[in-house]
Amino acid sequence: MKGEVLMILKYFWYFIIGGIVVTFSIFFGSKGQGIWAAFVTQFPSISVLAFYFIYKEGGNLSVIKYAKGFFYTLPPWIVYILFVAFLCDKIGPLWSLFIGVGLYSVITLILIYVFHI
């Protein structure tokens, strides 16, 4: 029972850390400071934390697999950002996000399937 409570607290802490980064990104973005919002979001804070906590939970091999996963998700992420940036003025932010995230998901799943990741 004590181990389960500690595990829940640990994941709650992970959630709080991620929420802080998202909050700063929203703060800067809502003030029209897109470059700072992007900087906060893309700053390796989330991946650094993820690398560290993945290492603590799963060791070196898990970190290496996580890092290699970035190479497969980076091209679809760029497609996502391009679609949001170019479609936002034309069809609005919600539809551009929907299409961008959809493309990201489809392209990533195709890469996972093709390369048997």
Keywords:
117 residues
Give a brief description.
The chain has 117 residues and is mostly helical. The chain has helices at residues 2-30, 34-42, 45-58, 60-91, 93-115. The N and C termini lie far apart (35 Å).
Task: Please describe what this structure looks like.
The protein is an all-alpha fold. Helix content is 91%, strand content 0%. It has 5 helices and no strands. α1 (2-30) packs antiparallel against α2 (34-42) and α3 (45-58) runs antiparallel to α4 (60-91). The longest helix is centred in the middle third of the chain and has 32 residues, at 60-91. The radius of gyration is 17 Å and the shape is globular.
What fraction, in percent, of the residue positions are helical? over 70%
Number of helices: 5
Radius of gyration in whole Å, from Cα?
17 Å
Principal-axis shape equals: globular
Give the uncertain stretches in residue-range form.
none
Roughly what is the average pLDDT, rounded to an integer?
90
Provide the succession of SSEs.
Answer: HHHHH
The largest sheet, given as strand count, sense and whether it forms a barrel, is: none
Report the β-strand fraction as a percent range: under 5%
